[in-house]
Design brief:
The protein is of the alpha/beta class. The chain is built from 8 helices and 5 strands; from the N terminus they run βαβααβααβααβα.
Length: about 210
């Protein structure tokens, strides 16, 4: 049976981890093998790159350097975890993927979309995302959630409100371009409401899966 690739996107504090866990439980109840992962990271080597990207430091990390690191981690992740899982029929649920690079490094930092597309073509040209759930909520609410979890902030959580507004606008633009793949969910709604909407999408994917 063919595996499926589901990605979760959204600004800081959108609740992607909570929704990923819900999807994992739903698929397991349907006797589907699930591989839950995240970006940057997902494998031991890619997690080491994640540490480089997220940890605040005294040395400047340019927008270009950040983008290249994201794709270096993604190349490892795709080759060593995502592709093998899909090949054996597992469903992969990934917290962020290349849409996040377009939103954060593209819209947020000003990296040209053409460069991001070129890197994506090199890293995962033939890898198709079956469904993306975009957990959308106002930036101040998302940042308040993220910053309440820990007193220690990573490089993105420490960014300005204006940066995160650009990121959210980047996601809005992506969803407008690909409405069939990207499903917007109101992440400011009660969790039970969000889970009902997620469940409806997942159940449709289960009905559509190849025999």
């Amino acid at each position: 049976m063919k595996g499926r690739f589901i990605t979760l996107e959204g600004i800081e504090g959108a609740g992607k981890s909570t929704v990923a866990a819900f999807i994992e439980r739903t698929l397991q109840a349907a006797a589907v093998e699930v591989v839950r992962t995240r970006e940057p990271g997902g494998t031991p080597l890619a997690e080491r790159v994640r540490h480089l990207v997220l940890e605040p430091g005294t040395e400047e990390l340019s927008a270009l350097s950040e983008t290249l690191l994201m794709f270096a981690a993604r190349a490892v992740h795709v080759a060593n975890l995502i592709r093998p899982a899909l090949a054996r029929g597992a469903w992969v649920v990934c917290d962020r993927f290349t849409d996040a690079t377009h939103a954060y490094q593209g819209a947020g930092r000003g990296v040209p979309p053409a460069l991001i597309d070129e890197l994506a073509q090199a890293v995962h040209a033939d890898l198709r995302i079956d469904c993306t759930l975009w957990l959308d909520l106002p930036v101040p609410e998302g940042l308040a959630r993220a910053r309440s979890r820990s007193a220690v902030r990573d490089r993105f959580e420490s960014e300005t409100l204006a940066f995160h507004e650009r990121v959210r606008a980047g996601y809005q633009a992506l969803a407008a371009r690909e409405p069939r793949r990207i499903h917007r969910l109101n992440a400011a709604a009660p969790l039970a409401t969000v889970e009902r909407e997620v469940d409806a999408v997942v159940q449709q994917l289960l009905r559509d899966r190849a025999p």
